[in-house]
Amino acid sequence: MYESASAQREPMSKVDTAWLRMERATNLMMITSVVMFDTPMDVDRLKRLLSERFLAFRRFRQKAVDTATGAYWEEDTDFAMDWHVRVTALPGDADKQELEKLVSQMASTPLDHSKPLWQFHVVEDYLGGSALIVRIHHCYADGLALVQVTLSLTDTDNTPEKRAELNRSWLKKDQGSVSQRLLEPGRTGLKRALAIGNTIWEKGAEILRDPSIATALAHEGGEIAKELATALTLPDDPITSLKGELGVSKRVAWAEPLPLEDVKTIGKVLGCTVNDVLLACAAGALRHYLLERGEDVEGLTIHATVPVNLRPLEHAKKLGNHFGLVFLGLPIGESNPLRRLEIVAQNMRELKKSRQAIVAFGLLAVLGMGPAMLQGPALEMFSRKATAVATNVPGPSVPLYMAGSRIREMMFWVPQNGSIGLGLSIMSYNGRVYFGLIADGKRVSDPDAVTQRFAQEFEKLLLLTLLEDWSDEISAAGVDALVTRYNANVSALAASKSAAPKSAKSARKPASKSTPRKTVASKKSARKPARVV
Q: Which family does it belong to (predicted)?
C-alpha cells in the first residue's frame, strides 16, 4: 500500500532543495547505477515488483517542482509506469565495453522534470542474462537511502513467496567517532551548524568576495565555526588534466572485482581500514594515469569530497539527503604505495575527529534557503577546492535476486557538483569489491585507463603484505621491482606447467595467485608495520 497523502503538495527540505538546484547541463544531479543479472529479466514481473515495493515510497510518485518561492513535491496525477520502465538492447554480442558506453549515454541524458525524476532501463540479452540501468535524481535521496530502497526490491531467493528478511549486518552500525561526535544528543551539532549557516547566509556576499572573512567567524561558534573557517579558506585544488572546463558528455567504467577478504586482510596487516586501502589504490591509479599523460605529479595532492552518513541506522530507509561532506587529501605525488596508504589513512583519521561533515550539511541547508543568484557562486567556490567526489557504499555479503533474476554484479556512480568532473565509486557485494569511475568526457576520455590501474595498485599492496622480512626499508623502486619479479615468476611457472610431460600432471602444482592470499590471512598476526622510504 502507498503512504497516505495529506496533501497534493508538500514542501521540500532545504537540503533536498539544494541538490535539486545544483543541476547543471555539465553536471546532472542523478545517481546512476547498473545491475547485471545471470538470467534475462522478466519486464512485467519487474513492473509488478516496482508497483508493490518501490512505489510504497510515495515520493517516487511525486514530481520535484521548483519555484521562486521554494521547492515542493507534487503528486503526478498522470503517473505511468511504462514511462519509468524502458526496455533497450545492445547490438549483437555486446560486451562490458558496450554496456559502459550505454551507461555513459544514460548518465549524460537529463531526466524529464515534468515527471517523477527516476527511470529503470532494462537492457536485454547482455552476456547471456540482462542488465538494469537505474537513474534517480539526488534530490529524492542520498546514496545510503537509495541503496536501502534498491535492497527493498531484492530477495534472498528467486521465489518471493520465500522472501526472507535480509541480514543487515553488512551495513555499518555506526561511523565510529564521526557519528559519535556529529549525532550528539538532541542534535545540538545540527542546530549549531545551522546557526552558523545562517550567519554565513547573512554574510554570504562578503565571503564570496573575500573568503578570509570566514576566519573571523571562528570566534562565533566554537569548534563548528573553526571547521567552517577551515573549509572556506581551503586553497583551490591544483590544475591538472582532471580539472578544468566541463562538457555535457560523461564517461563511465568499472574494474574487475577484487575479493573482499583480501582487502580486509591487507587492512588488518597494514593497520588501516578497508576504505583506506581502496582510496589509496584509487589515488595510485590516478597518479599513473597522469604520469602516462606526461604530467608533473611531484608533490601533488588533490582533494576528493567524501560523503559522511549523518542518519541513524534505524532511519536508513527514509528518503531525503542526510549526509555531510569532508575534503580528503589524496597524495598523488607519493610514489611509494605504502607511504601513500599511510597518508590516506592518517588524513581519514583526522577527518573522523573533525566536525567538517556537519558543517557541510548545515551549509547545504542554508544554500537551499536562498536564491540561485547566490547558490551558484557559493557552489563554485566550494567545488574549486576539490577534483573528485569519492563514495564507498558497503553492500550485502550474500547473493540477491530481483524479480526472480540473480544479481551477478552491481555498480553505481554519484553526481559531481559545480566544476568537479570526476567521481570515484566503491561498492562491495557478495564477497567482492567493485571500483567504478565517472568522468567528464573533456577531462578523462578513456576512464578504463584508470580503472585498469586500480587492480594493479591493489596487487602491489597485496604483494607487500607477503614480504617475509619487513625489517628492511621498502622504497617505491623496491615495490616496482617486487612486482616485476613476481609477475616474471608467475609467467615462468605457467610456461613450465604447460611444457611439462603428461606423466607429471599428478605432481605437486606450483603456487598460484590464490595461494599467497591464503598466506596473507594465515600470517597477518605475525606481521610488523613496514618501514617505508
A: Belongs to the long-chain O-acyltransferase family.
